[in-house]
Design goal:
With 170 residues, the protein is mainly α. It is built from 6 helices and no strands. It has helices at residues 3-26, 30-38, 47-73, 79-103, 107-110, 114-139. Helix 3 (47-73) packs antiparallel against helix 4 and helix 4 runs antiparallel to helix 6 (114-139). The termini are far apart.
Length: 170
């Protein structure tokens, strides 16, 4: 399957996950609604508010992923640095999933309903998917987009490979 179709499928999946997560977060049971009022979670009290909140977090994660990939593609950062940043981001997201698991396994959070708890799990999972996709894109990256093979720069020396006089040192 080509990369274009994978990107379309991934974007469609992420939009669907954001909508489902927003719905789940905005529709807890009675105890969950009381908790949202007491703790003043106004951002996820209604579906539009939850959609804006989850969508903004997902867009910021996708923008960060794109910036890291762009830095790798334009040689602002090496592939190793980009992979290290993605590894750190994936680790943070997995730790967030573990934190949500520990927090929502307590008695008081078990009373808010299964939908709300699944919605709470889903946001770190969405971010993990975004960063894993960026990690895979950096691993499979073959060169800078828009440049021919003759215009590439040798990574080890930093000189153009196609110009023999540029390799001469003064």
């Amino acid at each position: 399957m080509s990369r274009k179709y994978v990107n379309v499928l991934l974007c469609t999946l992420l939009v669907e996950l954001v909508v489902v997560d927003s719905y789940l977060l905005s529709s807890p049971n009675l105890f969950g609604r009381i908790g949202l009022i007491i703790f003043r979670f106004n951002a996820i009290r209604t579906f539009p508010g939850a959609l804006i909140t989850v969508g903004a977090v997902s867009i910021m994660g996708a923008a960060l992923s794109w910036m890291i990939r762009y830095a790798c593609a334009r040689r602002f950062a090496t592939r190793t640095v980009s992979l290290a940043v993605f590894s750190v981001m994936i680790t943070i997201c997995v730790l967030l999933v573990a934190r949500v698991s520990v927090r929502f396994s307590g008695w008081s959070y078990q009373q808010v309903g299964i939908g709300f708890r699944v919605g709470a799990f889903l946001l770190p999972v969405i971010l993990t998917l975004i960063f894993v996709h960026g990690f895979i894109r950096v691993v499979t990256f073959t060169g800078r987009p828009g440049l021919s093979a003759a215009e590439t720069v040798d990574v080890e020396t930093g000189f153009d490979e196609d110009k023999p006089d540029s390799n001469a040192q003064n």
